[in-house]
Amino acid sequence: MHSLTLSDPSLLRTHHFINGQWVAGRSGLALPVHNPALHPTRPEALIAQVPDGNAADAQAALDAASAAFKLWRVRPAKERAQALKRWHALLLQHQDDLARLISLEQGKPLAEARGEVLYGASYIDWFAEEATRVYGDMLPAAVNGRRMMVLKEPVGVVAAITPWNFPLAMIARKIAPALAVGCCVVAKPAEDTPLTALALARLGELAGFPPGVLNVVTASREHTPAVVDVWLASPEVRKITFTGSTPVGQHLARASADTLKKLSLELGGNAPFIVFDDADLDAAVEGVMAAKFRNGGQTCVCPNRIYVQRGVMAAFSQKLAARVAALPVGPAQQPDSLIGPMINARAVEKIERHVQDALAKGAHLETGGQRLQGPGLDGPHYYAPTVLSGVTPDMALTQEETFGPVAPLFTFDTEDEVIAQANDTPFGLAAYFYSPNVRRIWRMASALECGIVGINEGAVASEAAPFGGVKASGYGREGSRYGLDDYLHTKYLCQGQLD
Ligand code: SIN
User: Fold this and answer.
1) Which residue among 63, 228, 482, 489 has its CA within the 20 to 30 Å range from the CA of 237?
2) How far apart are CA 50 and CA 72, in angstroms?
3) Torsion angle (degrees, nearest 10) of CA 431, 432, 437, 439
4) Whether residues 301 and 233 fall in one domain
């Protein structure tokens, strides 16, 4: 077993967090958590074991959240805001421990993990502020003698199902708005990365969240349906917020139909990144580096298809390949490492399949294109940062999200052609383009079918902005004041007999 030293050892939790208590799983089964940087067969790869949850655990969490909701929703907004502010301060105070946990279970380099702690914390701070600004509305009455008003109310118990790629930021940006407006949460973190979520719950406990306001149940991929089905079937759960794959999002939408839950679904992406021939090429290369290689390419907003106008393709691909070839790959703890291991064997196999398929169909390898193993790279999960040119729509990586450090370059000639290609996907999360031409900027911003557009900018996410997609990338928004609406009902009051 890995010997993990944290400044505050109490952050390493190995139980469910239900009704303010750390409780063992009712099934008695354990879910091992591994460090993806090490070969899974090595004993040190095992970081900890958490409960592999079941339906009874899910029900206990739901009962606790339902009971807590009655009290939490009527707490003055300022008190909820203060609790979130204390939670935020604790995250900052424990940022080194949290970054260690993120790196260990998810694999991202330590500097990036620290960035994730601050990123996640920024949502908590933002929604703590927003908690006190959930305004209603007074409407002009349609007839005399009446007053017509709108109240905003918390939807109720929220089930948050979160992914492994940002084990802290994704759960923080779901829990914070929910708690801010008076909802209570039952959460199920990804099976690969439950420890960060449990550490966050521990900090919530220290921040003084009342019992039941936040509950975390851990489960393996195999037993996740048993947990989530309880929440899907219950009319007490009024909202599901999910980040993950489109097929799972579709399943959640179907399974929520009987109880007509509100849904926020942040699903798969297939982001285009477009470089016009009038673009600042150095800035565009930096944009790709920031957007594509963040978290080793394991983000939903990663450019998956990079379109470069013919006249600048040679210069762009040369500059990009030089930057990508120089990216240091290594375990999180290695101070200069910028690309860590992929999360698991399935992830590396998909990357390998995409690259091999592209090469077999005529793509050209500019750099990378293979698994990396050797001194300092212990496990089988490292993949070389890769640039492919000559990529065409018939290749698998054009249609499917690669979720790895692979930058495929397509050549285009005209604006109309690239808009058609960029939109030729069921997905619509993010898109990016580089050009200084103001008229083109507005044409492109309106023509791209997606929820987020980076214009001469590769790093787009912010707590102050709405994050979410269209088409098969889902619906609902996280972050910003739009993200708060997803946790609120609009209630109309009509008062008569006033004349
Ligand atoms: C994601 O990959 O789902 C989220 C990335 C982000 O918040 O920027």
Assistant:
1) 482
2) 28
3) 10
4) no
Clarify whether residues 457 and 480 are in a common domain.
no
In a domain, 486, yes or no: yes
Q: Name the residue with tokens 């920024």.
A: 122
Q: Are 239 and 155 in contact (CB under 8 A)?
A: yes
Please state the domain count of the chain: 2
pLDDT at 3 over 80: no
Tell how strand 184-188 and strand 157-161 pair up: parallel
Between CA 234 and CA 430 the distance in angstroms is 33
CA–centroid distance, residue 299 to ligand 1 (Å): 5
Confidence band of 4 (pLDDT split at 50, 70, 90) = confident
The pLDDT of residue 103 is 97
| Model confidence pLDDT, tens digit, residues 47-72 | 999 999 999 999 999 999 999 999 99
Specify whether 57 is located in the same domain as 168.
yes
**d(C-alpha 469, C-alpha 446), whole Å:** 15
Let me know whether 57 and 13 are in one domain. Answer: yes
Ligand 1 within 6 A of CB of 299: yes
- Among 116, 191, 266, 366, which one carries the catalytic annotation? 266
Strands across the sheet with 406-412, in order? 364-367, 386-389, 406-412, 303-309, 271-275, 430-434, 452-455
Instruction: Name which residue sits closest to atom 8 of ligand 1, judged by CA.
Output: 461
Q: Is 498 inside a domain boundary?
A: no
- Taking alpha carbons only, the member of 166, 212, 272 closest to residue 72 is 212
Q: Is residue 496 part of a domain?
A: no
Q: How many CB atoms lie within 10 A of CB 426?
A: 11
Q: Is 301 in the pocket of ligand 1 (CB under 6 A)?
A: yes
Tokens of 454: 């980076």
CB of 243 sitting under 6 A from ligand 1:
yes
Indicate whether residue 50 lines ligand 1 (CB < 6 A).
no
Residue 96 belongs to domain with CATH number: 3.40.605.10
One domain, residues 334 and 230: no
Pocket test for ligand 1, best of 102, 166, 403 (most atoms within 8 A of CB): 166
Asked if residue 195 is part of any domain, the answer here is yes
Q: Give the residue from 488, 332, 313 showing the smallest Cα distance to 389.
A: 313
- Residue 21 and residue 397: Cα distance in Å, rounded? 45
Cβ atoms within 10 Å of 446's Cβ, excluding its own: 8
Phi-psi map region of 72: left, alpha, beta (phi>0 left; psi -120 to 50 alpha): alpha
Percentage above 90 pLDDT, the chain: 96
